[in-house]
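Minutes, project check-in
Item: structure for the 324-residue chain
Input as provided by the requester:
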Amino acid sequence: MINGGPESAIHRSTDGGRTWKKVTTGLPDEQLGRIGLAISPVNPDVLYANVEAANAKGGIFRSADGGVTWERRCDYNAGAMYYGDIFPDPADVDRVYIPDVIFQVSDDGGRTLHALGQRNMHVDNHIVWVDPANTRHLLVGNDGGLYRSVDRGATWTFFANLPLAQFYDVDVDYAAPFYNIYGGLQDNNSLGGPSRTRSNHGILNQDWFVTQGGDGFVSHVDPDDPNTVYSELQHGVIVRYDKRIGTPAMHHIDYGLGVFTARAFEPYPEGQSLDLATVYQDLVKRNELAAFEVHTRFYEIGSPEGLAATEHHVREVRRSSSRS
C-alpha cells in the first residue's frame, strides 16, 4: 500500500509560493506516497527527502541545488503510515535523523544509516529537536513520551511528569470508597488506577498498574467481580487479569482461526505461573512439536502465516481426561 496517490510529488517555487513547478529529476518514476521534506540549516541549497514510492523505489534522497535535481542516497524507508519525516542536523550538513521504531541517523548525507541509541528509551520515534548551540543535546518525542539526551543519544532521561498518555477507551469498576479506572493506551499497555486517593501527594505514577502490554485498546471490568479485568492488545489478543495475584490469569483467546497466542500465563494452585512460550522453546529443542498438556488442556504447536514470526502460538485441540 502506498500512502499517497497520483498527485503525490515534490513541487518547487522561486516566487514566494505564487507559482509552483513539479520536480522529477532524480526522483522515482513510480507512484509516490508520503514525502518527508527538510532544508539543511547549514546550507539552504541542500535538501533531504524521505520518499515513499511503489515497487521499492523509495528511500532517502538528497538535493544539492535547491531541489532542482535529486540523488537517491539509500533505499531505506520505514513505512509512511507511522513515520516518514527527516530532520537535518543544525550544524553538520551531512548528518540527518530519520524517525523509525529505532531512531536512525546518518553522518554521510543519507548514504548509510545506524541506530541513534535507544538505551532505557521507548520505541516508535516521531520527532527530534537538536540544540543548535550544542548538537549533543537532543529532545525526542515517541510513543512513550518525551526524552532528553545530553550525549548525542548514548543515554536518555525520561520526563515522567508530563500527562501525555492517550487513552483509546476507558471503563470503571464499583470499588469503594473510590472506584478504579481502566483503559488501553496508545502503545503504552493497558492500565488500571484509582479515581481518587486519601494520600496527601495525590495520585502518583506508582498507583497505576499494567493489566496487559502492547498497544492497549478496550478494557472491561467484570460487573460482578472488580478483581477481574479483561484487556486486549493488537491482533485480537485478550487477557483476563486477576487483580488479586497481579498477573494475567488467561491468555488463550481465539483469533478466529482457532489459533491462540503462547505468551500465556495460567496460575498454578500454589501461586506459580506457567509461560507457554517457554514450554514451546523446550519442545523445539527436543523436536517434540506434536502436542502438550497444561492444566487439563491439550495444546498443539502452530505458527500461522500473517502473524509475527517472533510470536509463538498454540492451539487447544482437546480437553484432557487424565485429571479433573
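Outcome recorded: DSSP finds one helix and 28 strands in the chain.
No further action items on this chain.
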